[in-house]
Amino acid sequence: MLRELLGEPSRQDNEMLLQAMNSMKRTLGLLQRQMEQSGDPTSDFRKAEILTHGLMSSLTELEESTFAAAFFRKKVHAKFSEEMTGQERADYERYVYFYKNGFIRVFSMLDKLGNLLNDFYDMNTSRVKAHYSYFTVLRQFRYLKIHDRLADRLFELKDGFREPLDRLRKRRNTEVHYMNVEMQDDLWQKQRALYGKIKLEDLDEHLDDLRQGLDMVCRSVAEAFEYTNQQWERHSSGK
To answer: What is the pTM of this model?
Structure first.
């Protein structure tokens, strides 16, 4: 959708995004088959279907926000806030909007994935913490000592992307609980600047963190759904 609005060609999914989307599509097929066979008297399969559709939409929105942030970042050439033209200032503000939307969606996506895994595997994580996150669900896998292969892989991804995720989390927390992240950058630069000149934050470094967040989400989704698909197929075949 955003690419069309920006006059850009349609998205060409990279390998990890394609793998994540295909694993969820495969899950939808398995759920549909189960509903046709059982009638889904408890509506559990229908709920899982709705949650999976929602996750696919959310992943699309995260990818589009990342793309749009990069699109507008290319239009910003000034090094200092005071040197931006009116149009450049507008493009910078659009970059900030989509960048913030992106890093907020990284953690929203992970929490939705955690919620879905909690339902898939009857983990009752809410007994541990009423308002739990994706990372709480991961710890619950270890606490319950279930599905070790999946848990190990998801922990590997979490640890492998620890540094960019930590930076994104700090910026998300600042944005949600404290102040706008771009204003925090301005405040920090103002304290260091000579003659009140404010240098822009490192846009490329921030974008790289966002891209790594998207990558981590795609890989985690693919691992979770591919493992779940294998479990369901094995169960349905009686093996």
So the answer is: 0.89
